[in-house]
Specification:
Layout lengths: L1 H8 L14 E4 L2 E5 H4 L7 H7 L2
Helix pairs in contact: 1-3
């Protein structure tokens, strides 16, 4: 997913491991995707699309 985001934005991203099934995508400290809300991980391209609109 980090490669997709870099390709879409040109920005390096950092993946940070968590525990307990928590998965969030944050931009500048703001949560833009939370697995708990949608119940699933983002599909291919969905994570990168979150950043291409900013």
């Amino acid at each position: 997913m980090s490669a997709e985001i870099k390709l879409a934005t040109g920005e390096d991203v950092t993946l940070v491991g968590g525990s307990g099934g928590i998965f969030e995508i944050r931009q500048n400290g703001n949560v833009v995707w939370k697995k708990e809300r949608g119940g699933a991980f983002p599909a291919d391209g969905e994570g990168a699309a979150l950043f291409s609109n900013t």
